[in-house]
Structures are given as C-alpha cells and as structure tokens.
Automatic annotation (TrEMBL):
<dbReference type="InterPro" id="IPR051341">
    <property type="entry name" value="Zyg-11_UBL_adapter"/>
</dbReference>
<dbReference type="InterPro" id="IPR000225">
    <property type="entry name" value="Armadillo"/>
</dbReference>
<keyword id="KW-0833">Ubl conjugation pathway</keyword>
<dbReference type="InterPro" id="IPR056845">
    <property type="entry name" value="LRR_Zer-1"/>
</dbReference>
<keyword id="KW-0677">Repeat</keyword>
<dbReference type="Pfam" id="PF25013">
    <property type="entry name" value="LRR_Zer-1"/>
</dbReference>
<protein>
    <recommendedName>
        <fullName>Protein zer-1 homolog</fullName>
    </recommendedName>
</protein>
<dbReference type="GO" id="GO:0031462">
    <property type="term" value="C:Cul2-RING ubiquitin ligase complex"/>
</dbReference>
<dbReference type="InterPro" id="IPR016024">
    <property type="entry name" value="ARM-type_fold"/>
</dbReference>
<keyword id="KW-0433">Leucine-rich repeat</keyword>
<comment type="similarity">
    <text>Belongs to the zyg-11 family.</text>
</comment>
<dbReference type="InterPro" id="IPR032675">
    <property type="entry name" value="LRR_dom_sf"/>
</dbReference>
<feature type="domain" description="Zer-1-like leucine-rich repeats region">
    <location>
        <begin position="190"/>
        <end position="330"/>
    </location>
</feature>
<feature type="domain" description="Protein zer-1 homolog-like C-terminal">
    <location>
        <begin position="397"/>
        <end position="751"/>
    </location>
</feature>
<dbReference type="InterPro" id="IPR055142">
    <property type="entry name" value="ZER1-like_C"/>
</dbReference>
<dbReference type="InterPro" id="IPR011989">
    <property type="entry name" value="ARM-like"/>
</dbReference>
<dbReference type="Pfam" id="PF22964">
    <property type="entry name" value="ZER1-like_2nd"/>
</dbReference>
Amino acid sequence: MTLATIFCLRNLRKTMCYQGFKNKLCLRSDIFLPSEICDKLVNTYMELVHTDSNFEPEESFFQLFSDPCSTRLTRVQLREDFVRDRDLEAIQKQDLIELHLTYCNSLSSRSLKSLISFRETLVSLCLFGCNHIFYRKGGAPLACNEDTEDEEEESPASRQALETDFSFQGFNRLRLLNLGGLPDEVDAETLLKPLKSLTSLDLSNVQLLGTAFLTQWKDRLASLVLYNVDLSEELVSTIVEMVHLRHLDISRESRRTSKFKMSRKILTAIVQRLVNLVSLDVSGHIMLDNCTVPHIEEAMGRPSIEPCKSSIYPFQELKRPLQFLGLYDTTLCNVTHIPAYKVTGSKNEEQVLNAIEAYTEFRPELAHRAINQLFDIARIQHCSQLLRALQLVIAALKCHKYDKSIQVTGSAALFYLTNTEYRSDQSVRLRREVIQVVLNGMEQYQEVTVQRNCCLTLCNFSIPEELEFQYSRVNQLLLKILEPARQDESIQRIAVHLCNALVCQVDNHHKEAVGKMGFVKTMLNLIQKKLQDRTCDQVMEFSWSALWNITDETPDNCQMFLNCRGMSLFLECLQEFPDKQELHRNMLGLLGNVAEVKALRPQLLTPQFITVFSNLLDSKADGIEVSYNACGVLSHIMFDGPDVWSMEDPRRDSVMDKMMDAIQSWDVSSRRNINYRSFEPILRLLPQSIAPVSQHWATWALYNLVSVYPSKYCPLLIKEGGISLLEKVLELESSHLETKDMASKVMEACETFKEDPMETNNGQEVNFGQRG
C-alpha cells in the first residue's frame, strides 16, 4: 500500500487526477476513495513534502479531498509552515475524527473556523506549536473570513489581533487535546471550560493563571502533560486529586530553569494517590537528596525493576513497575535500582536512546541533547543497539529538518554510526535512508558544521555504488558547496574527494550529466584559485584527478575542459609546481583522454604543447606514469599522420624518435597506478602503419598490463577482440620487430591465462584510481 500510495502521489495526473481550469488539479469523476486510502495519501504527501527534495508539492492538493462523496478523510497529520489556512478550508466538509497540527505557524484564526466545522466528529485534536492560530490576519474578525483573498495567505498573523470569538462549545466528542505552546494571551481555563469529556490533555509550555479548573476532569482524565509548566504546591495538590491518571508528565526542559524542588514527600504523594499510574515523567527537576536510598543501604545484586528494591524511596510504594519513567537531566537516573521497564536519562546507552525516542516529536531541545550523548557513546565507547540508534537519529532528522541544532548533532552522530565498525549490521534500505537525510541536511543548511558532518558521513559509503540512486542530487549539492570563492578548507577537501570518487567507475551517461551541471568549470575554478594562492594541496590534486575521471571516453567533457581554459591552467600548473609528481600524473592522464578525441586533437597540435609533451617524456615522476601518459598523448596525435603536422619545430620525426627512446627505457614489469575499464582507445592504434611508434606504445601498454595483472586484463583484452588486432600487427611490414615480439608475448600471456586463469605473478592485484 505504501508503494502504491507514493507512486500515485508522484504521478497524480497519470493516476487519479486531471488538469482542470487554470491548471487546477482535479479528481477524476470515476474515483471514489475510502478513508483508509485518503488518510494514507494525505499523511504520506506531508512526509514526502518534508523529506524528499525531488517531490513537487501541488498547490491545490487538499482540494482533491473537498467532497466527502468521493473522498473520505478521518485521521490527518499535518506539520510545519507548509500548511495554509486554505488547506484546512478545503477539507472542512470532511468528518474528521483525528486532526494533528504540529508547528503549523502559517495558520491563522481562519483555521479556527475550519476546526469548528469538525466539532461534531472530532475525537482527537493537536495544535502543538501552532503559535499564530489564535491570531487574526489583517485584523479581520473570525466571522468575516470566508472570502479572504489568497494574497492575505502570505502575510503572517498579527500577534496583536487576538481572536476572541472562538470557543470549544459543541466539541462534545473531543477526548484528546494537545494545546502545547498556547500563547500567554489566551486564557486556557476559559478556552477549555466547554470540554466536559476530556481524557487526555497536553498543556506543555502553557502559562496557567490558576490550576483548580483542572479538577473538572478529575474523574475522567487518564493523561496529563504539563511539560515546562511551573509547578507549585497548589498545582501538585490539584494533580493528586486526578486519581484516574495513567500518564503524568510534569517534566521540565532543564534543571537550570527550575525553581521548584522535587522532594520525597511530593513524589510519595504522587505514587500513593495516583494508583493507576503506569507512566511518569519528572525530567529536568532538581531532586532533593532525601529521595534516594544511601548507596551502602541499596539492595544487593544486579539492577532490578522490583519496587521493593527501588533505590528511589517514593517508588518503593508502587504496586508494580512503571512502564515508563522519565528521569532525564535528574540525579535519579544514576541510581542502581529503578522500578520501570523504560527509563529516560543519561546514565547509559539504553536511557539515552529512550530519551531520543520519547522526546523527538514534541521536545527537540531535549532530543538534541540526547543525540549529543549518543554521539559521545558511538565515538568513545561502543553502540550496542546500532539499528535502533540509527533509526531514532534518522527519525529525528526527518522530523526536524528545519532545526539546526538537531541537524548538527544528528549528522555528527550518523558519521560515527555508519563507519566501518558498524557497517555489517546495516541493510541497504537503512543505509539509503541515512543518505537521504544527510542530503536533506546539506540542502537545507549552508552552515559549515552541518555541511562538514554530512560530507564526512557520505565518505563512509561505497562510492559511487551506494550513492548511485541519488547520483544527480548528490553531485549538484557537492558542486554547490564548491561554488563559493573562499570555502572552508576542510569542507572543500572532502567535497572534491567525493566529487572525484563519484565520477570514477561510472557509466558515461552519468559523466555527461554531471558535466552539464558545471562539474568541469567548478574544478577548473578551484584550480585557478589554488594557482592564485600558489598552493598545490590535496584540493588541487583531487581536482585534476576528478577532471581525469570525468573526461574518460566523454568527448563533451573534454571539449568543456578546452573551452574553459583548461590547457592554460595545465601549463601554469606545470610551471608553478615543477616537482609535484602526483599533480603531473593526473594532468597528463586527463590530456590523454582529450587526445583520444579525434576532433579535439588539432587544438593540442601547437609547437608549445608538443614541446611540453615531448619534454615530459623524460620525466621520472611517479615511476613511469607521467612519461607513459605524455607518450600516450603524442601517440594519438601521431596517429593522425604527417599531413596534419604543419609546424617546423619540433619536427615529427624527432618527436617520434624521442617517444621510442622513452618507451625502451621503461621497465615492462612496472606496477601501475592506473585502472583501465576499456582498451578501445589503445586497440585503435594497433592495426595501422601511419605511425609505428604509436603502435609500439599501444603494444607496450598491453604487454605491461597483461604481464603484471593477468587476471584483470587478459579477459578484458580477449573480450574486446584484441587478439585478432595483435595478429594484424604481426602481419604488417611496417611494424617494428620489437613491437611484433611484444605482440606475440601478449598473445601468449592470454593463451596461458585461458589454460590456467590463476594469478601468475607474485604481486597482489591493486585497484587504483580510474584511468580517466
């Protein structure tokens, strides 16, 4: 059902909708959907809007559910500023049973009128964090809002124009109500008075002028949440009268803001009077020392949840262990025996994970602190509940995409939770979820810490394989990071490394797509900045390496390199950094790719470039790699024949002689810092007589590779038809004797491999960076 729902939402016009007047989305007349499907559509739509950057929201989506004859909604959960007054107005004919609005700050008192339309059916209502819903826009009273212009949608509700006409009168079926964050100007007592049948009430962060009014529900209320509500003797006296309470939350954000001290007497009264209690949260309170059993008197043995052994005196009065006990940011979480199945605190991993789970949705300020503690556990100790920890952090990052503190701590925790130590315990689906939330964070925040954490986390994945399902998106985000002229050095280094890894070992259509995003220009800009700073660091080397990779068998990207002053930067780098071997290797590898494109070779055929390539034949940088790549560039140029060689100096013959001398100086058993995916560019140089030296270079390349790495390159050569081309080399009179001798040895090596396909050399196979 989930898969079908997501498919329909991504393809509304192809499934259940059509384009109506003024491009308005309309439901097809033959579509009738029950509440099970409609609820799923709306709730999944909200999730996609907040967690999938590729998902395009529909302006008139909620209008699809305006007619109860064709669509039925019963349980709807909407969150964040994305939700508008007109969205609730669109569905006001529906018989909603449950409506949860969380952090919907764009809603004004216009939405209170929509709420009134649900009064006869609504059982559960949440208005948590909807700070403006009790205020009018533009000062218009509630009764006149019906024809409000859409332009007014965009203006925030005025905090001065308090709505005074709304009442819960007539909400007779309402049982569960969450008014967390109700503005101080709204009198909770007056607002709640008409609701006679509440069984669950959440007044988190609400300023209560008096508390006696709570007793009107003392015979019904099963759940009462008073998070961050100032406790007093009067309020405690009221609470203990509510004998039917099963869940009580009187916690605070922090002990620092608490004036009230939790004593043994108060906790004992709560336990003795509220005999039905199964869940209690007293987090963030200052606990007086008389609450706990002295360590020397504690019950012996392993930690126990039996009330009689409790290290907290008042809880010895419990008839049975609590299902949940919130002790986060209190001294009580550190004791040995706690009579509860699930405890929040900071003593150990279990308590920290419980805290993240309990507080993520409505208390990001606590979840943030708990995730920070999980980060320390994963970094310094060992996370024993990896799967649960990852799922909780992912849920927090999804739920609070716009909360910077959650994004910072969550992305840092993900880095440690996805590293090699924990990798074997993670499924493909879970690792993909991690990648999605990491990319969400990168998209939402340009802040240095979030960007660095996210980039580092991506480094824990196999690239490009594990990122291929988000290939275009991740490349766009990385290129965006690298755009600013002066980026944080560490982020720049990681981002360039990731870019390089992403274009290594991928299909050409991926490389072409990334090239069109501006990849080549971005890398050359980085190189230009490093040249200006006269710095050759990892960013410089990675940038050239990335260009080497992205131009491999991709003529369009090679053309872009030339168009963006690539050759000028090549010459400048050679001149500025004459001793940087790795840099030279990467640059020559890239130019080898350019030289493979026949249409671009004329741009390399200038006295200046030919002289540079010719001089590099003598280079001993990085073993034979620079000399080998320079010879490769010249081999492709020579393959075009003497007719295109229009310059007098250097002469073609003298360059060819120098190439032959260089090839003969190389050790054929050299181990290579290179990785060929295809021999096609080499093989095209074999059956020809126009440039025997090019043929000689190509044959030497094959001989070296099949000798040193037979198990890798013999099958590739056989598969690509290299044997028949080598036979032609033997037949050609123009082929040098040394070339023919090497060709024969290559054919023998492949024949031997076919008979005994085991690695014959002593060296281990090494998989270096891609050839290009």
